[in-house]
């Protein structure tokens, strides 16, 4: 995203689309910085913060839960890159409806969130249940 922002910067107008309404039409404009640099900065920061969750809570993100966290990180970056791609295509003259990009990506992220919750809950329940499977007193 940073490379594309730098390549696109000289050829875009001072005001570019930065927000879309529910019907997918542009309803707000912002500066070149807001549209071309702020979004990649936020994407990078979010990517790093999501990765740090495994550092701060390593017991919760072991095995498949770590894989699920990686998939969630990927979908986060895909959403940010999708929005960024719509901004860039719009300033280059294409009139792309944001809904065609964002809704499929949000559906993908919802799947990643559910997957992450399932695997982190499995890790949590595996650590809290007794090794015998939770049965009665063994003699």
Structure description:
With 139 residues, this protein is mostly helical. The chain is 65% helix and 9% strand. It has helices at 2-8, 32-56, 64-91, 99-128, and strands at residues 15-20, 26-31. A two-stranded antiparallel sheet has the order 1-2. A hairpin with a 5-residue loop joins strand 1 (15-20) and strand 2 (26-31). Helix 1 runs antiparallel to helix 2, helix 2 (32-56) packs antiparallel against helix 3 and helix 3 runs antiparallel to helix 4. The longest helix is centred in the last third of the chain and has 30 residues, at 99-128. It is elongated, with a radius of gyration of 21 Å. The model has no long low-confidence stretch (mean pLDDT 86).
Q: What are the key terms here?
A:
65% helix, elongated, two-stranded antiparallel ribbon, 139 residues, 2 strands, mainly alpha, single chain
Strand line-up in the sheet with most strands: 1-2
Main beta-sheet annotation: 2 strands, antiparallel
Question: What would you report as the Rg, rounded to the nearest angstrom?
Answer: 21 Å
Structural class: mainly alpha
- Count of individual beta strands: 2
Oligomer: single chain
Low-pLDDT runs of 5+ residues are none
- Mean pLDDT over the residues: 86
One letter per element, helices H and strands E, the order comes to HEEHHH
SS element count, helices: 4
Q: Report how far apart the termini are.
A: 63 Å
Q: Determine the strand fraction and express it as a percent band.
A: 5-15%
Provide the helix percentage.
55-70%
The outline comes out as elongated
């Amino acid at each position: 995203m940073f490379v594309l922002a730098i390549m696109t910067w000289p050829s875009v107008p001072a005001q570019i689309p930065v927000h879309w309404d529910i019907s997918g039409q542009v309803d707000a404009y912002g500066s070149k910085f807001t549209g071309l640099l702020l979004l990649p900065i936020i994407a990078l920061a979010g990517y790093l913060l999501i990765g740090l969750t495994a550092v701060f809570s390593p017991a919760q993100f072991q095995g498949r839960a770590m894989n699920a966290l990686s998939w969630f990180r990927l979908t986060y970056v895909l959403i940010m890159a999708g929005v960024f791609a719509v901004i860039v295509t719009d300033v280059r003259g294409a009139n792309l409806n944001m809904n065609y990009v964002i809704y499929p990506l949000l559906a993908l992220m919802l799947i990643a969130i559910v997957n992450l919750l399932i695997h982190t809950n499995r890790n949590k329940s595996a650590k809290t249940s007794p090794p015998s499977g939770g049965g009665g007193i063994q003699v």
